[in-house]
Amino acid sequence: MKCYICAEEGKETDAVAICIVCGMGLCMDHLVREEMEVWKGDYPFPSKKLKKTIPRIVCQVCYSAYKED
Amino acid sequence: MSLSKRFLAELVGTFILVFFGPGAAVITLMIAKGSSPPNPFNIGIGALGGLGDWFAIGMAFALAISAAIYSIGRISGAHINPAVTIALWATKRFPSNEVAPYIVAQLIGASLGSLLFFACVGIEAVTVGGLGATAPFPGISYGQAILAEAIGTFLLMFVIMGVAVDQRAPPGFAGLVIGLTVGGIIITIGNITGSSLNPARTFGPYIGDSLVAGINLWQYFPIYIIGPIIGAVLAALLYDYLTKE
Predict the structure, then answer these.
(1) Domain containing B107: what range?
(2) Does B56 touch chain A (CB under 8 A)?
(3) Cβ of B69 and A43 within 8 Å?
(4) What sign results for the dihedral spanned by CA atoms B37, B43, B48, B54?
């Protein structure tokens, strides 16, 4: 798979990841890797934020869309 | 989440329960004031619409409990009931050092609920409605009242175990189902003991009645401690036994 954004720019770069939201192939220059907080617990137990986080890889378009929220 | 935030959340949750639940009983009694109940077992709740009066009160409790669970469930766990806290502790699901702070928060929240209801309605909330305090109804003995409270709280805790504590339960339904369960229990047990199922729910109106009008119902308070705690602990233990491989 090739990087979609590079392909739009006329370049051909191997993809190293896929955006978890839109499925776009991404090279190292065009991916965003975010650490997501994980909460465990629900009624009748108080929620606790776990020490470990879950990594998420998204493209820059989806990342900026999430940040607008 | 810090203990102080969970303390505050538990206080607010129990406030919601006691303001809106017993508050509905007060309003029912105030509306029925002056009517002639058909028999001594009818103290006014039932004078307007028979068992429909208890249905209305039960629904007020149901919606208040659902509101509390959905709003603070992830913060404090929304026990809003010392019997639930003790049952979770007895089955090693809740830390020992947090039991007392939770119960104190629940008692303060319940007291504020009753006192602020009085502040909203006035003296008739106490003299006519008794702030929705619970007591055995005419003809119901102390022992019968404890038994009824234990059975009612057993059902409540059994449902909590099934729809919330059990990790196989479908998510999102706990608040609705538990609220409606309490509403259903109140319809049946309401005219026996007032259907407290919760020491804090009885404590709030008792404190309010004592402070505002000097009404002393404290001789009945052990009913609403012993019955709910026995019922809740038995339900939690039985559920664990039934689901253990």
Answers:
(1) 3-243
(2) no
(3) yes
(4) negative
Count the Cβ atoms, other than its own, within 10 Å of residue B238.
Answer: 14
Q: What is the pLDDT of residues A13-30, one digit of tens each?
A: 999 999 999 999 999 999
Q: What is the CATH number of the domain that holds B219?
A: 1.20.1080.10
Instruction: Sketch the domain layout of chain A as residue ranges.
Output: 4-68
Whether A46 sits inside 8 A of B74 (CB atoms) is yes
Q: Does B174 touch chain A (CB under 8 A)?
A: yes
Distance between CA B150 and CA B133 in Å, rounded?
A: 18
In angstroms, the CA B233 to CA A44 distance is 15
A44 touches chain B (CB under 8 A): yes
What are residue A2's DSSP bridge partners?
Answer: A14
pTM for this predicted structure = 0.86
ipTM, 2 decimals? Answer: 0.77
pLDDT, tens digit, 9 for 90 and up, residues B172-212: 999 999 999 999 999 999 999 999 999 999 999 999 999 99
Total domains present in chain B = 1
Give, rounded to a whole angstrom, the gap between the first and last alpha carbons of chain B: 33
CA distance B160 to B69: 11
Q: Do B74 and A44 touch (CB under 8 A)?
A: no
Sequential DSSP letters for B31-69? HHTT---SSTT-SSTTTTTTHHHHHHHHHHHHHHHHHHH
